[in-house]
Amino acid sequence: MCFSWMPIAVLVVAVIAGYMYLNKPSDIYLSRPLNSTYDYIVVGAGSAGAVVANRLSEDKDTSVLLVEAGGSELGILEFEIPAGFIALHRTEHDWEYYTEPQKYSSQSMKEKRSYWPRGRVLGGTSNLNNMVYIRGSRHDFDHWEKEGCNGWSYKDVLPYFIKAEDFQMDEYVDSGYHGKGGYQTVSESQVTELRDIYMAASEEAGYKTVDCNGENMIGFCKMQSSIRNGQRWSTAKAYLRPVMERENLHISINSVVTKIIIENKKAAGIEMIKDGMKKRIMVKKEVIVSAGSVNSPQLLMLSGIGPKQHLEQFKIPVHADLPVGSNLQDHMIYGLPIYANVSYAIDITKATSIKTLLQYFLFGKGYLTSSALEATLYTHSSKGNTSFYPDIQLHFLSIRLDSNMTKKYNPSNMDDESIENAIKSNIDSSMVIMSTLIHPKSRGEIRLKSRDPFDHPAIDPHYLEQKEDVNVLIEGIRVAQNLVKTKVLEKFGAKEVNLNALNPKCSHIEYDSDAFWECGIRNAAQTVYHPTSTCRMGAANDPTAVVDSQLRVKGIAGLRVVDASVMRNIPSGNINAPSIMIGEKASDMIRGKDTVADIREKTKNL
Ligand SMILES: Cc1cc2nc3c(=O)[nH]c(=O)nc-3n(C[C@H](O)[C@H](O)[C@H](O)COP(=O)(O)OP(=O)(O)OC[C@H]3O[C@@H](n4cnc5c(N)ncnc54)[C@H](O)[C@@H]3O)c2cc1C
Ligand SMILES: *[C@@H]1O[C@H](CO)[C@@H](O)[C@H](O)[C@H]1NC(C)=O
Ligand SMILES: *[C@@H]1O[C@H](CO)[C@@H](O)[C@H](O)[C@H]1NC(C)=O
Ligand SMILES: *[C@@H]1O[C@H](CO)[C@@H](O)[C@H](O)[C@H]1NC(C)=O
Ligand SMILES: *[C@@H]1O[C@H](CO)[C@@H](O)[C@H](O)[C@H]1NC(C)=O
Predict the structure, then answer these.
(1) Membrane-crossing residues (predicted)?
(2) Does 3.10.180.10 match the CATH number of domain 37-603?
(3) Per the annotation, does 282 bind a ligand?
(4) Considering only CA atoms, which residue is closest to atom 24 of ligand 1?
């Protein structure tokens, strides 16, 4: 039977692939000759930068240049297929950063360094992330406002979240919290049976199922994702492709900005390297830096904006003495592997079967549309704020990396010994629940290693330096353990995998004690890839702030930062959605327009 339809299946896939190739939207708009001057220059076409370039070029008499270090995302299947994300790690589309060796964490990682993928392509990191779409808690933004970010309270930012969205979950679309017709598609992400099993277990344990982008995020949440018709909906797809033909928008790819030209305390233009050639392009109104939480601070420092002593060390003339690169914050995750007598998780065999390929290419459905994360849960620790402000998030994983895949892709940068242990112990976990630290107390920094713009900066997150961060992660593990004990999961034979074989470094400690988990966490807890706050926003007189609440760099005219680096503090959710919101809100500030008056009116009581 297999023989009779295999060749047909292969033929169908080939025809569809050919059809897709012939019909791929063209990149001709990326090769228009550049002008010498623009009204605005946006540096970086990532989650935020793509939004800003789109919105500024809505004004037809305004000229905009968007500069991106990476290339086009078109024609690369791993960018289309949600489940392809891991194959993009450590490729030309990834900046592939590694942190400095860590003292309090990452002990089982190569040289104790954490691996930080970052997108280097149109769409930036929205093109290699896991597509989880969570805005954050309303209290995150209310706290920003309280700490001096005027105009950034929840009631101020909600209209921009709504403006951005084309929301596709019928269940919640009319709740008042969601938008239709925006550029960014957000859809329900469910491929396996695991989501509903986790939901039933969570409900049994007393968690309500909620819309975590709605009124109250505490509880179990069906994952919402930046996926449209089974395709990754990066900001390149969402915000750039539909408007690329605009005459007043130029996009320069494969162009690394090496410096912002500053004259008389004003941004006058940029220097960039394209095709091995140095170019200067001047600006009439503003330079907008949207290069992300690593590259934005690096570029500012290379341009003479940063901690004075640090810049002087590299003989960089100082234009503004600001705490650029400080206040680095990041989320961390630690997975609890669970054995269960079910095989719902997606593995490599399922992901590459002919049936899966056909389902994907014919209908845009099936395993390949999985973002790996189909559900999440928000709660709070014993020290947390019980009035609806979470400090623990659980991520429920729906894929399963066998040891060969772990070795090949090594997303956690495990050292050789740990990889060997993983292979030897051959953990057959059919489920993984991950405890996530969402309000870290530890603070890190990004500093220059040299004045060569092509050198990676020194990234030191100081992970888990504050003991409280470990305690919260342990409490998250306890929440996950309680789910394992529910009748729902018991029915599937769920039990925790014994971790001694995986992590012999901790096996001398009493199993399941807090000290045991602390040991595991300090060895193997890893980044959720959410660095923020390295060009922190704050009041004009706030010594920790790099930009004011209009996102203007303090002391330099015509220069803003618009990306995840301006976040006052890291929000409670995964940070792509708030990066897009920041792009939307900043665009109104720059244009001097209020495009959300009607949405604000409708949402004023939410
Ligand atoms: C593996 C992974 C998984 C993730 N999963 C999720 C998730 O599921 N959900 C979620 O919400 N978040 C997730 N994130 C995080 C999220 O995607 C990012 O925080 C977000 O995309 C950041 O947006 P940004 O605009 O600040 O920066 P970016 O999107 O990184 O954009 C910066 C852009 O600037 C360009 N650039 C940098 N320097 C220069 C220069 N000198 N000259 C020209 N261009 C330059 C870069 O190439 C890039 O395109 C994940 C991140 C990673 C790495
Ligand atoms: C580029 O320059 C040409 C010639 O001056 C002008 O017509 C065009 O509008 C400019 N385009 C942009 C995007 O600045
Ligand atoms: C797993 O489930 C199958 C089918 O439900 C059952 O036959 C088998 O005994 C179970 N095995 C274990 C170890 O529980
Ligand atoms: C808890 O959250 C409420 C609501 O935002 C806030 O008023 C209160 O100050 C918070 N308490 C603490 C200890 O953070
Ligand atoms: C892993 O790789 C080894 C050697 O390449 C191979 O023999 C084995 O079948 C692979 N295991 C899986 C689960 O694919």
Answers:
(1) 6-22
(2) no
(3) no
(4) 292
